[in-house]
Amino acid sequence: MEKFTKTNLSPFEDVLIITCKTFSDDRGRFSEYFNQNEFEKVSGIKTMFVQDNFSFSKRGVLRGLHFQKEPFAQAKLIRVLRGGIFDVVVDIRENQKTFGNWAGLKLFGTDNKMLYVPEGFAHGFVSLSDETELLYKCSKYFNEEADRTLIWSDMTINITWPSETLSSDIIISEKDKDGLSLNQLLERGDLF
Questions:
Q1: pTM for the whole structure
Q2: Residue 123 catalytic?
Q3: 14, 67, 134, 172: which could form a disulfide with 122 (CB 3.0–4.6 Å)?
Q4: Among the options 66, 116, 123, 141, which is catalytic?
């Protein structure tokens, strides 16, 4: 019996939705959150994770779109523990046919799904719940000098955020408000 299954997040072949097998009974439920061997087997990817991050967000908090420049680029494995998010990835790999494309999906603490985001993608999310807890694994350590923010509202990318989150009540950090457009990052040589 497989502990994990995967599907691709279209249009990207290398962004994966990984579903964990759940075992339920009258006591509750159990699932294996992460197993390096099983992850490599189901994904075909040999990513070693070195850092876990935890995030708590209120409804309407928008975080991102974040990435780190080479040689500190990070792959991420994202899982919602409680609540829900609309999760977004943007391809920032200049040499790919999907450069500048985005994809998004809703993830909930009850759906037992994780999103694998490889190096070369900006990542962000908006909280859909009053209390959202997120845990994500990173393949490289955080490096402040390599940290970059792609503005969440870049009109050339044109992300379709859920309409209920795009109100005057949206909560964004100053860092994320000051993010740069894809064209600005390109001009500065600040992409992946």
A1: 0.91
A2: no
A3: 67
A4: 66
